[in-house]
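Exercise: predict the fold of this chain.
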Amino acid sequence: MRRSWAREEFETVELGDKRLKSRLVDIAEAFSSHPEASIPQATIEWKRTKGSYRFFDNKKVKAKKILEAHQNSNLKRANKYTTTKRLFAIQDTTEIKYATHPSLELGHGGSLWGNSLFLHGTLIVTEEHIPLGLIDQQVWIRKEVGVRHKKRERPIEQKESYKWLKSIQATSLFQEQKTDTHVVSICDREGDVYDLFAEVKAQQEKTAIDLLVRSAWNRRLEEPEGEGAHLIETLSKQAPVGQYTLTIPRNGRRKERSLKLEVRYSKVTIKPPLNRSKEKHLMPIELWAVEAKEIQERSKKECVKWRLLTTYEVSDFESAKLMLDWYTKRWIIEEYFRVLKSGCAIEERQLRTSDRLENCLAIDSIIAWRILFLMYIGRKKPDLPASILFNKIEQTVLYGFIHKTPKPPPREPSIEDMMKWLAKLGGFLGRKNDGFPGAEVLWRGSWKLPDIIAAWSIFSS
């Protein structure tokens, strides 16, 4: 019989004690079976609950070690599920608010972030939108609000924006382990940081990585004719190279929709920030800029207008369209954060210290990734056999429960079959036009399945 997913995922974990490794596997399986539950609800028995709390408080247990084992498994998945020689490292930040935990004290007393942790994650994703796992996760407490002009005087290593560069460094390490693969890091507008472009340019000397960022600033550009060129004005002067219909994926309440875009692009050289003109070592950076403006008239809020900056060469209309397609993958990490907060209920965790919360968060993050992985693998590779993710008992019980029969399935189900049956446990209707189930019904179904298996085991014996 296939080993449990958690035992395979944490096969390489090093916690200095075999009992801690066994406890980690037990907690991960319990959290996976009951993603929305509290620790006592997920572990059920007092002995397992007490062991879980002791695990999170053990000084040998480090979130970094848990995530390192998960990252080792990412490489195996990259070899198994990647059909092309390109992967995407999508990074973003979210705030985790512990508003319902009065005994917990985090952050700067009395500040806006007095009971919050901040998490910056990097998901590695295939061209088919399958999330293979996390290759970097940074967690910190914002200790002070600070004064804006004083923050600007600090070196980048002392700024919160250094998180983007640390992610690039982790991406570079991942690419060095998978040398035959081109990796593209994708960021939203917060990642429009001069030092990030400089870091990627430095990493390109030894690794095959590129950067794609949505522009936030009207950056100063070098211009042969003289001073005064800026990004927005330069792009607006370019003649449109064509029109492109792009599908924006569903995101939360926003439905999937198709956009007709007018596309421009230009090679640009950005200057260092004006407030850092005294730093003589900073050099202009050569990039490519792509602008996509929605043709259909909408309100100013709804109208799509992207300006993208990239280190990848954009030499024609086809490569400009490619940048737009790549950028749509960024919504996967927003979906991941939604699953982490709503599906795993991480903001409801009742642990009293930041170290315990971070250890628990490492496991919850992997559970959230797995829910997302199951959803996308079902969508993108529906014909794969169920045995790659589900054991024989899970297949038999789920089939029997949905079809109201004690008989096992007549043939091995596909991944798509299992995903839809699991989603039906969570309230998915499965009508002809309902499409593929989303993450919410899948995590609800994941909560019910272990109880059904437990009852089946008792009565079948």
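Check your answer against the key: Residues 354-380 form the longest helix (27 residues).
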